[in-house]
Amino acid sequence: MASENPIIAMCAFGPATDPAADANESPMASPVHDLVVQLYEELRDPVCRYLAALGAPTPAVDDLCQDAFLRLFQALRNGQRVANPRAWIFTVAHNSGLNARAAQARMRELDENADWPGVAMADPELAGRPGGLEPDFLLPFAGEARPAPIFD
What value, to the nearest 5°, has the Cα angle with vertex 54 and ends 94 and 36? Predict the structure, then answer.
C-alpha cells in the first residue's frame, strides 16, 4: 500500500484541530505552518518562474509568489479544504500575476498619455546626467522664474 503524501492529506482534510481553539497559539507552532513551509521550499522556484513567464512585473514576482503561499496558509488556518495544494498555489499565483500585469499595463498607458506640465524633457547635452532632465523639472510650472541662488 503506497503511503499518502502528508501535505495532500493535511490540505484535503483541513487542520486536525479546530482553528478557533488554537487562536492564541503562535502560527509558527502549527502543523499547517510546517506544511506550507515545506510546500514553499518545493514550489517557490517553479512558481516564480511561472510568474515571470506569465509576464508579471519582475520586481513583483517574489512578492506575488510569497502572497500565494501566505494565502494558502491563511486558508488552511481558517479550515478551508484544499484538495490539491500545488494547483491551488499556481491558480492563486496565476490570478495575481495577471492582475499585476494588467495594473502595470494601465500604469504604462497612463504614463504614455500623461501631459506633465513643468517638466523640461531631456536635453541632448545632458544625456550623461542621471535622470536626463533639466533642473526645471523641480519647478511646479514651466515658465516660473527660477529662485535666486543662495550661494554664487
Answer: 40
Q: In this structure, what C-alpha cell is assigned to residue 54? A: 506569465
CB 67 within 8 Å of CB 96? yes
Closest CA to 14 of 82, 84, 111: 82
145 residue type, one letter: A
Amino acid at 89: I
Confidence at 87, pLDDT banded by 50, 70, 90:
very high
Distance CA 47, CA 19 (A): 28
Residue 57: all three cell numbers together: 512585473
CB 43 within 8 A of CB 22: no
Q: Determine the pLDDT at residue 109.
A: 78
The CATH number of the domain holding residue 28 is 1.10.1740.10
Let me know if residue 77 belongs to a domain. yes
Check whether 104 has a pLDDT greater than 60: yes
Question: Residue 27's domain spans which residues?
Answer: 6-115
For residue 100, give the nearest of 54, 57, 44, 51 by alpha carbon: 57
Domains of the chain: total: 1
* Per-residue pLDDT, 130: 52
Measured in Å, how far apart are the chain's first and last C-alpha atoms?
87
pTM over 0.70: no
